[in-house]
């Protein structure tokens, strides 16, 4: 099953932190240090708040108070700026040694503070807000801002309700399933064969799709939130009642032939197998939803840390030539990532709608 495959992504935090740096711009120079601002990676949190990255470079090592006491050569600080209220707070700070190795991470957001005129913070706050407020506002940039906010609303709904069906009802274009079925190059239904998909009623097909999206979201959220520096086996990471459910479900009794869980990723090539599989995945989602709520997974340090490494809410535009998912040719489609999922968004009859969604993994 795909939620087990997501472990391949979860267990690679080092690769995430080693991404190459984007373009930087100098915003202030001291006698013995400099401050650069990342002009590319700007994360919009809501209509008025953005996260901007500042890199401090020191000529001589600075002391990091312990325990243990360490010497650091640079720091990367993520600051949240509310440009409308002229408020700021430090959101996340990473300290590096001379070789660029991480020494310590401070991931507890600070308190919101007012920007004082003439202060050092104002020298960072002003150019940070200018990244958003003073860019030329072309029609495309205005559309991007709308899509950014729309994607943020989708993510908020998913985090609050933890049910992808509600997201579909509220944000999706009504005939999204027809668009999926019309796309001959992409299987939007995971391990469901295209032939079997065409034999299902729309209710059955959506039920399967919702179940798979829910298990992707809930299990990824839970596993990431519980991940330790010494990853355990799948059996140790997943809740015991989930494993017990899988082992005792009729689908397992009928289709499991080996001692592992590979059978959960096999192609669903007939309607009855699909129905049994959907029931299993729905039951897993129901249990995982309870566990996610119990551990408050979205509030954990591990989950917040992972979100900071994903380039979320940064839409890119393409003009549809082929693979239009039922939309007219030359339709503008924005692709944008939200936690766990990759969305395609288009303006339909004057309103933004999600035309497709699939796991980022």
Outline the structure in words:
- The protein is of the alpha+beta class and 361 residues long.
- It folds into 2 domains: 227 residues, no CATH class; 105 residues, Surface-adhesin protein E (Lipocalin).
- The protein contains 14 helices and 12 strands.
- The strands form 2 sheets. Strands 1, 2, 3, 4, 5, 6, 7 and 8 form an 8-stranded antiparallel sheet that branches.
- A hairpin with a 4-residue loop joins strand 5 and strand 6.
- Helix 11 runs antiparallel to helix 13.
- The chain starts with a helix and ends with a strand.
Count of distinct structural domains: 2
Instruction: State which percent range the strand residues make up.
Output: 15-25%
Figure out the total of helices.
14
Count of individual beta strands: 12
Q: Stretches where pLDDT falls below 50 for ≥5 residues?
A: 5-22
Q: Structural class given helices, strands, pairing?
A: alpha+beta
Question: Which descriptors would you attach to this protein?
Answer:
41% helix, 4-stranded antiparallel sheet, alpha+beta, 2 domains, 12 strands, Lipocalin, 361 residues
Topology:
Elements: H1 2-5, H2 7-10, H3 13-17, E1 24-29, E2 33-38, E3 43-44, E4 49-64, E5 70-82, E6 87-96, E7 102-106, E8 113-114, H4 120-133, H5 139-161, H6 164-171, H7 176-182, H8 194-199, H9 202-226, H10 234-237, H11 240-248, H12 250-255, H13 271-295, H14 301-309, E9 316-319, E10 332-338, E11 341-348, E12 351-359
